[in-house]
Write a structure and sequence with these properties.
Hypothetical protein af1432; mainly alpha; about 190 residues; 10 helices
Length: about 190
């Protein structure tokens, strides 16, 4: 989990903080995915959390933005004093940010987990992740079995470390269901997330 100070900095400096595609909801989902995968491979969860929040923070557009990962790494370097990682961890963070879109797979399990966690959130833009582009066995299983809904059952960390009752993907659906007259259906659906 990242500090409040870093989150406040990102809210202030990232033009895409509130983006529905590359903003804080995506970052929180990547963090959730990464921590889930780390439970299988012992990747460094501190690096995973900071990657989740820095990898897309300096985007200039919602489309193909080739330099966004490098800009995210530079932004992290500029604010190094706020990021409580040792030098090895910090290098993993910046390498993961720089290479997460077009990089070659390194041997580092933490960097590979960062990238897999991001790719497992591709359905938000209508792309299903493919196992051939993933590294971790559990990530490959999720892709092969189209088991992405399982990830929605994992906790998503909100701004200051509390979990959402309802995964973010379902907030609008639940809101629409709330406005219908069939409260039995609403209760059945929302009970799946409690």
């Amino acid at each position: 989990m990242i500090s409040q100070e870093v989150l406040s900095l990102l809210r202030k400096e990232s033009e895409f903080f509130y983006s529905p595609i590359h903003g804080v909801k995506h970052w929180q989902t990547v963090e959730r995915n990464a921590h889930y995968l780390a439970s299988f491979n012992n990747a460094d969860t501190q690096v995973l959390s900071y990657f989740a929040h820095f990898h897309d923070c300096m985007r200039e557009n919602e489309g193909r933005d080739k330099g966004h990962g490098s800009r995210g790494a530079l932004f992290a370097k500029k604010h190094r004093n706020l990021i409580p990682l040792n030098d090895v961890q910090f290098k993993q963070l910046t390498d993961a940010c720089k290479g997460h879109t077009y990089g070659e797979r390194p041997e580092c399990i933490t960097i590979n987990t960062c990238w897999d966690a991001d790719r497992l959130d591709l359905p938000r833009v209508g792309i299903m992740p493919k196992a051939e582009y993933l590294y971790n066995e559990e990530a490959k299983r999720i892709a092969d079995e189209s088991d992405l809904l399982m990830l929605d059952g994992q906790e998503v960390m909100t701004n200051f470390g509390q979990s959402n009752d309802i995964p973010p993907r379902y907030e609008n659906i639940i809101f629409d269901i709330k406005s219908t007259s069939d409260t039995g259906l609403f209760n059945k659906i929302t009970s799946m997330f409690r």
